Amino acid sequence: xxxxxxxxxxxxxxxxxxxxxxxxxxxxxxxxxxxxxxxxxxxxxxxxxxxxxxxxxxxxxxxxxxxxxxxxxxxxxxxxxxxxxxxxxxxxxxxxxxxxxxxxxxxxxxxxxxxxxxxxxxxxxxxxxxxxxxxxxxxxxxxxxxxxxxxxxxxxxxxxxxxxxxxxxxxxxxxxxxxxxxx
Length: 183
Description:
Low-confidence stretches: none
Number of domains: 1
Radius of gyration: 15 Å
Number of helices: 6
Largest sheet: 9 strands, mixed
Strand content: 15-25%
CATH superfamily: DHBP synthase
Structural class: alpha/beta
Distance between the termini: 32 Å
Number of strands: 9
Mean pLDDT: 95
């Protein structure tokens, strides 16, 4: 499996879009600082860029730079659920590229507990774009074969593995006030 992670990391560093298993579904991912790669994700999904994407990471240090001014309670609220299948929306830091958030004021972040996704982030050395592997409005892929069926060779590399035990995408909450955006 390490060879698979190494190949995926090499593809990410070349600005390519990959697919990989997460807690509930396969995700499409790329380097969040590569504007062209992020645009490719939106093109593949046939989804407007105004919707933004979330980022996953192996640990808090990989998402910290994306978080803007926020009180310690917001950080504690999120960290109490990480690593795990919980996505939190934070105010964006000035270093967060606007193309990640679309028309949203915040940035959605998750420290993943999925072993392959976490290994991928560790190998890459930072957070990755993570959005469900599907065309907009279609059910998300839950296997590598479903990714291949949906995208063919349009995805540069697929990390083969099992998704986690969740039946649906992770809940999304506001880190500042706890408001639930998606259950």
